[in-house]
């Protein structure tokens, strides 16, 4: 038993700088606290440990193995080289069966998601439970409180470092009897699942068309190994379609975040950068984040907003994706995500759920059989095949829709493009103009004051509307201001203070919320949305259409005065 000088950890979805993780007992504290929180359940359990391969993962894996053995874990399952995407971990918990019919009941996922990696960058650990989804708040709160008072952790010194570069079983004698570490191919379970969901034949057919080309950018994250296996080996795509698909500990020094700011190479190739590409622009482009749960979808010189992406997938799923052929159980979106999905749900007579930001809320709905497809504006899309959002799944969903729409087009004919599909969708359902402004690393006190100011404003809607009139702002009347609150329909738990909303007469919305995941200072997110059903106006450029609302949002919130920021860090 080792004495532990305890440290207060910032959050339980613990994601922070590597230098912090390297402090004595830091990883040990979180891992032991998790086992303590799980209590007696830990004995004889199988757990998965792996992640996006970022710097410090290999050290953390060896530490976790030893603490697991000392706590009575029976077996630790590891993807080769310690790699497993977040969605693959979820799939493994749900579906992988050991030689004696046994299944894993939890996982430590080592990732800081879309944040940069490297000795001076971020690392993270997250615990997922037996449904394959992130631990619910009741457990994470328990873990967090234990991390603050913990004084010791258990570690099995008799266990040598395990070679995780080769597949195979390493057997040890742990304090509670036999203890195994099983290293396996990181892609097999996930590929099997994808093949059971999509029509690989139809996608292969699309990819084999000489007039179709695509580009997938893994941003040096873990999605690269799945892209290689699925797109190239299974679907026979040209290997030239893949860029940055070899995982790197530092993501090549980049920011593995699939958006127009950070996915630079893809953005350039798709004709959306400042320079005109020298090669032919592909028909379809996509990227995923470090741990492969986020995705960005692009067409030739065309960006698909994530809020539109989930709506379009939901609208086309039944015909294009075999997994959904019997219909959808319901759909869900996070509150700040645009209402594009709501319009589809209404047309298809599906139940729609609006939940707080973060994937765990979707998990409860899915476990209860109430939701098939869901998404977030933050480049997260997924379905009830697992309990995490899923980047590669979203790419396969789009490829399926493209294959389906082009099934009648003769080889060599003019293909239905991503842009055609989106424009067609807008003309059927109307368009939700959408943008998000992020103000990162804002002073925490300033952020709190800003939020308090916004809460105060909710009780003076008539003043707000007079201001709109006086300043002759081209926006509708504000009819409601509130803080979003969610009561989970399954377990009845209530989540309060989930974002400050201003709702307008014409359906437009402004939402302000502080980020729950930023690793430095506070991050303020401002979400701006406007609905347009007039077909003659849906083609306008998004930033142009939204300019009056943006101007109003900044004026109303006094954001610059509070934060000292004249412009956002990132616009998505
Ligand atoms: C952000 C996104 C949210 C997402 C979360 C985790 O949270 O806004 O939609 O679920 O990141 O994404 P926040 O609280 O910073 O706004 V990931 O790819 O890090 O699992
Ligand atoms: Co992620």
From TrEMBL:
Domain Alpha-D-phosphohexomutase alpha/beta/alpha: 18-153, 188-298, 307-407
Cellular component terms (Gene Ontology): cytosol
Catalysed transformations (reactions): O-phospho-L-seryl-[protein] + alpha-D-glucose 1-phosphate = alpha-D-glucose 1,6-bisphosphate + L-seryl-[protein]; alpha-D-glucose 1-phosphate = alpha-D-glucose 6-phosphate; alpha-D-glucose 1,6-bisphosphate + L-seryl-[protein] = O-phospho-L-seryl-[protein] + alpha-D-glucose 6-phosphate
GO MF terms, alphabetically ordered: magnesium ion binding; phosphoglucomutase activity
Enzyme class (EC, first level): isomerase
SUPFAM superfamilies in the record: Phosphoglucomutase, C-terminal domain, Phosphoglucomutase, first 3 domains
Gene Ontology biological process terms in this record: glucose metabolic process
Quaternary structure and interacting proteins, as annotated: Monomer.
Primary role: Catalyzes the reversible isomerization of alpha-D-glucose 1-phosphate to alpha-D-glucose 6-phosphate. The mechanism proceeds via the intermediate compound alpha-D-glucose 1,6-bisphosphate. This enzyme participates in both the breakdown and synthesis of glucose.
Family to which this protein belongs: Belongs to the phosphohexose mutase family.
Protein name: phosphoglucomutase (alpha-D-glucose-1,6-bisphosphate-dependent)
């Amino acid at each position: 038993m080792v004495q532990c000088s305890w440290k207060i950890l910032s959050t339980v979805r613990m994601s922070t700088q590597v230098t912090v993780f390297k402090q004595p007992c830091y990883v040990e504290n979180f891992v032991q606290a998790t086992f303590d929180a799980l209590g007696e359940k830990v004995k004889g359990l199988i757990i998965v440990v792996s992640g996006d391969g970022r710097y410090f993962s290999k050290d953390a894996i060896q530490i976790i193995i030893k603490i697991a053995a000392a706590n009575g874990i029976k077996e630790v399952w590891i993807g080769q080289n310690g790699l497993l995407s977040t969605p693959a971990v979820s799939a493994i918990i749900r579906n992988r069966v050991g030689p004696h019919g046994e299944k894993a009941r939890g996982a430590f996922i080592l990732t800081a998601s879309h944040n940069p990696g490297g000795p001076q960058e971020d690392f993270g650990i997250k615990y997922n439970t037996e449904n394959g989804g992130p631990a619910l708040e009741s457990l994470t709160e328990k873990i967090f409180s234990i991390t603050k008072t913990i004084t010791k952790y258990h570690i099995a010194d008799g266990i040598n470092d395990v070679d995780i570069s080769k597949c195979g079983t390493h057997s040890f004698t742990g304090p509670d009897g036999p203890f195994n570490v099983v290293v396996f191919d990181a892609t097999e379970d996930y590929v099997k699942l994808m093949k059971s969901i999509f029509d690989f034949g139809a996608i292969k057919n699309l990819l084999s068309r000489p007039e179709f080309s695509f580009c997938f950018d893994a941003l040096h994250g873990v999605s690269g190994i799945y892209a290689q296996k699925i797109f190239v080996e299974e679907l026979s795509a040209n290997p030239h379609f893949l860029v940055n698909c070899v995982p790197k500990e530092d993501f090549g020094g980049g920011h593995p975040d699939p958006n127009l700011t950070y996915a630079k190479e893809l953005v350039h190739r798709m004709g959306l950068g400042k320079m005109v590409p020298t090669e032919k622009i592909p028909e379809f482009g996509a990227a995923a984040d470090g741990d492969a749960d986020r995705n960005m979808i692009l067409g030739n010189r065309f960006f698909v907003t994530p809020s539109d992406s989930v709506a379009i997938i939901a609208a086309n799923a039944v015909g294009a994706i075999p997994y959904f052929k019997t219909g959808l159980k319901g759909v869900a979106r996070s509150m700040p995500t645009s209402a594009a999905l709501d319009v589809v749900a209404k047309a298809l007579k599906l139940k729609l759920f609006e939940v707080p930001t973060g994937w765990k809320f979707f998990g409860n709905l899915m476990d209860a059989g109430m939701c098939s497809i869901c998404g977030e504006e933050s480049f997260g899309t997924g379905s009830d095949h697992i309990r995490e959002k899923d980047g590669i799944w979203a790419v396969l969903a789009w490829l399926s829709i493209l294959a389906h729409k082009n099934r009648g087009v003769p080889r060599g004919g003019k293909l239905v493009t991503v842009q055609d599909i989106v424009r067609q969708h807008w003309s059927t359902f109307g368009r939700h103009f959408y943008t998000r402004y992020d103000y990162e690393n804002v002073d925490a006190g300033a952020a709190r004051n800003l939020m308090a100011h916004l809460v105060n404003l909710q009780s003076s809607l008539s003043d707000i509307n007079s201001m709109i009139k006086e300043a002759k702002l081209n926006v509708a009347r504000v009819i409601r201001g509130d803080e979003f609150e969610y009561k989970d329909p399954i377990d009845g738990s209530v989540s309060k203070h989930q974002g400050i909303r201003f709702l307008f007469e014409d359906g437009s919305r402004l939402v302000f919320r502080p980020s729950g995941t930023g690793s430095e200072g506070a991050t303020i997110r401002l979400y701006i949305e406007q609905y347009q059903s007039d077909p003659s106006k849906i083609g306008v450029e998004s930033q142009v259409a939204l300019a009056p609302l943006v101007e109003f949002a900044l004026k109303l919130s006094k954001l610059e005065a509070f934060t000292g920021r004249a412009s956002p860090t990132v616009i998505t």
